[in-house]
Amino acid sequence: MQCRLFAMLAGLVALLAIGSSQMLSGGENEAGPVIDLSAPNILGLPRGAISGGGSLMVCGGGQLPEEVYDEFVKLAGGPSGRLVLIPSAYPYANLEALNYRFNGWLRYPVQSFHFVHASTREEADSEEFARPLAEATGVWLSGGAQGRLADLYKGTRVEQQLQRVLERGGVIGGTSAGAAIMSETMIRYGTSREAVTDAGFGLLMSAVVDQHFTERSRHTRLLGVLGQNPQKIGLGVDEQTALIIRANRVRVLGQNRATVIVPDQYRTMSLHLLASGEEAEIIRSKDEVESRLKLLPANLAKK
């Protein structure tokens, strides 16, 4: 059910810029950052996604740098990856149009690459149609209108299979509309100051995603949505930038920044800015009666 939200400043917002000089050392070995796979599911990933080691790549739109796509393919298994691209946020007419628009994906030497592009919900809910997703190690959701993705795929086998990709250790990436659809509370459309929300895919049950974040001055509207959902974490991603999520760890890759808005127990919020190459962990305090979320600066992400 859609609900119109007028933007409001929900409680006190503290600005905290996190620079590389503030990062704490430790917690990393030669293989990369150590992820606690038994950690609580703070961001509300699908059941089994943390223990399975799945990742989300939330991209803010615009012209993404090659390093973002390269990292996605790497997370999907590199040469052994089985990739699926869902372009349905835009009404592409045929396979020829898809091949022309997404020809850059064809240069990656992966095991397989498929488009999954439904015309109806009935098609999206068929076992045969969703079969490529059942075998995928990486799924990419391209841009357009997130409402189209929700109308076609919400509650179908496609959505179920997306959750299973994460549970078996795969990666799901999306840009613009493909990022917005990831959160259960989805910003369907709006202006810089207000938002209309709807139900997204639920890959992030406890967070709200917004994209084109700084470029379109969407801070106010995201704060308004969080004011109506005070237990959820806000994730705003700038253009040409990716926020990579694994368990409760977030890492920024690309040209600009990601903004993480964390609620406090007193209905206040802290706003954290992460630049490219920076990484942080969202933790839950254990010594308080009310659960409290805060952002813990972590070691620099490996490039």
Keywords:
303 residues; alpha/beta; Rossmann fold; five-stranded mixed β-sheet; 22% helix; globular; disordered N terminus; peptidyl-dipeptidase activity; carboxypeptidase activity; Peptidase_S51_cyanophycinase; serine-type peptidase activity
Give a summary of the structure in a few sentences.
With 303 residues, the chain is an alpha/beta fold. The protein is built from 9 helices and 19 strands. It is an enzyme of class 3 (hydrolase).
SSE inventory with pairings:
Blueprint: E1 3-6, E2 13-18, E3 28-29, E4 32-33, H1 49-52, E5 55-59, H2 66-75, E6 82-86, H3 95-101, E7 112-115, H4 121-124, H5 127-135, E8 138-141, H6 146-153, H7 157-167, E9 171-175, H8 177-180, E10 185-190, E11 194-199, E12 207-211, H9 219-228, E13 233-237, E14 241-246, E15 249-254, E16 257-263, E17 269-275, E18 279-284, E19 293-297
Parallel strand pairs: 2-17, 5-9, 6-7, 6-8, 8-9, 12-13
Antiparallel strand pairs: 1-11, 3-4, 5-14, 10-11, 13-16, 14-15, 15-18, 16-17, 18-19
